[in-house]
Amino acid sequence: MMTLDLHADPVDLTCALVDIQSVSGEEQAIADAVQAALTEQAGHLEVVRNGHSVLARTNLGRPSRVVLAGHLDTVPVNDNLPVRREGDVLHGLGTVDMKGGDAVFLHLAATVREPRHDLTFVFYDCEEVEATRNGLGRVERELPEWLAGDLAIVGEPSNAVIEAGCQGTMRVELRCTGARAHTARAWMGVNAIHALAEPMRRLAGYRARDVEIDGLRYREGLQAVRVSGGVAGNVVPDEAVLTVNFRFAPDRSAEEAEKHVREVFDGFELSVVDLSPAALPGLSAPAAAELVQAAGGKAAAKLGWTDVARFAALGMPAVNFGPGDPTLAHTRQEHVHAAEIGQVAGVLREFLGAL
What we know:
Elements: H1 10-18, H2 28-41, E1 46-50, E2 53-57, E3 65-71, E4 84-86, E5 89-91, H3 95-111, E6 118-124, H4 135-142, E7 151-154, E8 162-164, E9 168-177, H5 197-204, E10 210-213, E11 216-219, E12 221-229, E13 239-248, H6 254-264, E14 269-276, H7 286-294, E15 299-301, H8 308-313, E16 318-320, E17 335-337, H9 338-352
Parallel strand pairs: 3-6, 3-7, 7-16, 8-15
Antiparallel strand pairs: 1-2, 2-6, 4-5, 5-17, 8-16, 9-13, 9-14, 10-11, 12-13
Helix pairs in contact: 1-3, 3-9
């Protein structure tokens, strides 16, 4: 088992974490290393294990509690391990998504022993796969008291800028039916793929909303992401399915988002196959406002979906704050600048403070 030095520079700690391969479902080695390091080097913390998630917290009786959460897993390896360091830049799987953020949180867990807020650290598994396997969801079901707090900070890459809230995401399947026939006698059948012309027309003419919440602008989107149908090159297809993704702003509930999509495609058979609610930014909450101030007074809207939505559903304001460019996540070219890792660590150290 690799030994992690939590008192090391978070940049060096990022390199160590990246070199522990942890594709979703294979997090035991990294969870073992994290658990051992926290137990041995952060004796002021209560540490527990839940599956391949590791949780640690202070119990100092502070009037407020901040939860810092980061997933330990990555997408599959794409010829981008081990870590490679070129000057100020770290290259490799997980440098962006999100072992740089994990390194910052682990370093703070070991070195901030008298914070202004009580702290809970959650390092969890299976974020990069289907939601039913997400370790944070399992922790919520089995150890719900560990997720209670006044503010949650999720260390997803955000270019070292506070990204507040997140948009919701919904995937629906629109199904058209027809009747099979030989294409040589096509008039005897009904082409289900042709029936998709009308919903495609509606999509092409759709005008997405821009929504401002707490001074942040969220931009919605309704996009076709897949078309399937047909059984052979000489058969009129009797079924066709159009898959559509709706990214909706935090002013819509999941129910309102579904109602809107059904109105857009009125007259067609729809089924919801995936749904994750949005999260309001919550920047008016005292702890969130304090963090934004520590980060320079500016915040941006999170246009993707992240686990901040899980914390928002628990009634907590939640933000994304981590090093790395999110557009590089899941790419072979993942890389992060050491300066961003240091910047995030510095902001959080100032925010968490020391008595």
